[in-house]
Protein 1
Amino acid sequence: KAGVTQTPRYLIKTRGQQVTLSCSPISGHRSVSWYQQTPGQGLQFLFEYFSETQRNKGNFPGRFSGRQFSNSRSEMNVSTLELGDSALYLCASSLSRERNTEAFFGQGTRLTVV
Amino acid sequence: AQKITQTQPGMFVQEKEAVTLDCTYDTSDQSYGLFWYKQPSSGEMIFLIYQGSYDEQNATEGRYSLNFQKARKSANLVISASQLGDSAMYFCAMRVEAGSYQLTFGKGTKLSVIP
């Protein structure tokens, strides 16, 4: 069974540009959530999608957005990139939204903004 | 709001020895789940173990066990018989809302296993 796949693995962008990251969840998983990981702030929740609807959003500016498609694949978009957006972006999928359901993570996309 | 505190930025353990990674949490919710994840240098977060707030017994998964002390709000991870491949970052996380898959993470502990 394939795991969570994130593409691309590495990305270098210039300030002011926009970027789109992709996440393919484990087959059958309908919940997809995104996290930003930086050395200073650690792991921070960005947003969660379930059945193509955003269910929850973390404390990030509106430059960060996402969507989920009918096949549960999700994309995350960051517009007007800033140097501080350089981070590892992790996607996680889970079978259900029950409290005891573990989330399976992808290997992440490492974004560098120059 | 929920908070996870991991007070050990780094830990060293001799190969084949046991090690305990500390985690304390703060929440006003009565129902919550606690998770431990391992993050090797490759970046992927690997699920290790789960403990529910209403679970009466401590969770165990192979060499991993969770020492859950609800009154003290602690959920320490115990790794028995450490292996070189256990060297990684370890994160404690909590989820409280049944209707949302949002994990709150601690800052992590970097474990180094010495041969």
Note: The radius of gyration of chain A is 13 Å.
Protein 2
Amino acid sequence: QSVLTQPPSVSAAPGQKVTISCSGSTSNIANNYVYWYQQVPGTAPRLVIYDNNKRPSGIPDRFSGSKSGTSATLGITGLQTGDEADYYCGTWDSSLSAVVFGGGTKLTVL
Amino acid sequence: EVQLVDSGGGVVRPGGSLRLSCAASGFTFDDYGMTWVRQAPGKGLEWVSGINWNGGSIGYADSVKGRFTISRDNAKNSLFLQMNSLRAEDTALYYCARVNDPFSYSRYFDYWGQGTPVTVSS
């Protein structure tokens, strides 16, 4: 069981918007930065959001991140079939002294 | 261009050992922390271990503490993971990744290797 909780799956039609939640606690999300990684099946993960809401170069502004209290959210607008992937949230857990990930959310673009 | 090339994976019996390597290029290696993350077949990401730029700060997941040892050779731009007393539950694809901070391993992972597979089976 993962320290961070994500929904197993979400889906939406092309062009629509989707959000993926990540729930944690005061020892992780509430007091540390949250990161989001995209993993297309068969490939290595790729960073899409860092420091709660910043986008690395090359990541389109359709991707956004936010954090409030012990939860964080990844938003993707203008969905494309190329966005189909597993998405993982991650952060530092101060109690465990470890990096922790969510269990992952499979995004399906219908 | 930043490149991380993982190697050293293979099939090993329970109780055996394996040493993974990660060859880095395209950036100043000792300006960054490094980390290992694994992914069991069909499962999610699991952080394994991290190391800061000079090896002065190191951390492990509880699941591997006392069995795995992370190290780095900045002169050879290389990261290593020595895995001892391997168990079936260590079977996974092991990724090395660059940490965007020289002084810790707790920040975000901005570049990843392609992964090297480890299978622990009798």
Note: Chain B has a mean pLDDT of 97.
Protein 3
Amino acid sequence: AQSVTQPDIHITVSEGASLELRCNYSYGATPYLFWYVQSPGQGLQLLLKYFSGDTLVQGIKGFEAEFKRSQSSFNLRKPSVHWSDAAEYFCAVGGGGADGLTFGKGTHLIIQP
Amino acid sequence: NAGVTQTPKFQVLKTGQSMTLQCAQDMNHEYMSWYRQDPGMGLRLIHYSVGAGITDQGEVPNGYNVSRSTTEDFPLRLLSAAPSQTSVYFCASSHLAGSGDEQYFGPGTRLTVT
């Protein structure tokens, strides 16, 4: 069965500092990988996705993620965070079929001034 | 374009009551799904549909029913509410099959069962 692990429940970063959120997945074939962001009281918004090709993918709001097959990882990065980036971030994996996504438990990002 | 809409935003039920959570999308998406979000658990798939008239179970389907009579609507029914169903429920839709395409999420329904 597929699974996603986000090892960090909470991360605190100073405004303007760089960010890396970790995601490890378990999947038997080539996965479809996603990062979503959820602001308080809101639904989820897609930041970026990886299907195939270039392993470094660019997303919205200045985020990027790198797919590393050898490490089964898909870490999310941003070179300089803004206070508005404070939110819950979810990594998700799927196989391309109809049976939906498997989500990690999320990482809560706190931005300190 | 409203995207994915959900009603109600909040609901309180007593144990044993039934209710329907509404979900509609105006993007002509074939695929729709329901997730529940619990603290520290991420999102878990309840039911999904690949088109009108076709539904299937996800990871946590017990206690829930769905139907898909039109492309636009995908209601979720709680048959006899239990405290374990206290959660935030999200509806999502996508153009292609659920795990291969960007999912568009609604704003959620926060349900409390007492």
Note: Chain B touches chain A at residues 4, 31, 33, 35, 40-45, 48, 50, 56, 58-59, 90, 92, 97-100, 102-103, 105-108 (CB under 8 Å).
Protein 4
Amino acid sequence: DAGVIQSPRHEVTEMGQEVTLRCKPISGHNSLFWYRQTMMRGLELLIYFNNNVPIDDSGMPEDRFSAKMPNASFSTLKIQPSEPRDSAVYFCASSLGEGGEAFFGQGTRLTVV
Amino acid sequence: GENVEQHPSTLSVQEGDSAVIKCTYSDSASNYFPWYKQELGKGPQLIIDIRSNVGEKKDQRIAVTLNKTAKHFSLHITETQPEDSAVYFCAARYPTGNQFYFGTGTSLTVIP
């Protein structure tokens, strides 16, 4: 398996623009997580899905952030409008079942200027 | 919710020495404790994990210990090598739901 695949690897955008981050989980995994990593706050869970259904989105910072999982093999995290403080590395991870290990993608480094 | 604390934040050791990273958690219901290694520019990679029904687990040079009573768990790396240099994260997970709560990370430097 190729592991969790995220795209793009790097994204530079201007403040106010819409940004869409993409994730393909490991085939067969039924839980998917979006994390944000910054120096100040470390790894923060933004949202997670179980069987394509959002279970906990309490970590989503504000209404500018939204996430979808239209099917078992694809998820998006959208920021609209983007702000400089959204600059961070965003990770997607997936796991199998509630007892499974979580595997991370390589991350998307977002820079909002 | 669960609160995971990790120490130290930075650690430097001479090649060949041992490194120990410690974490504490707040919720006694947490039952799964993975450790991740993150190299520069990459995502965290699972290196070892332990479940609450086990006190110790070892995989070659890496071992993890769990003290449920004290609610702390530790990562031990023996015979450290320069390629062990990375940021290490501990995490804890509840038995219900699937959220992982991460520590703040330890930057390990192994000096050749």
Note: Residues 15 and 112 of chain B are 5 Å apart (CA to CA).
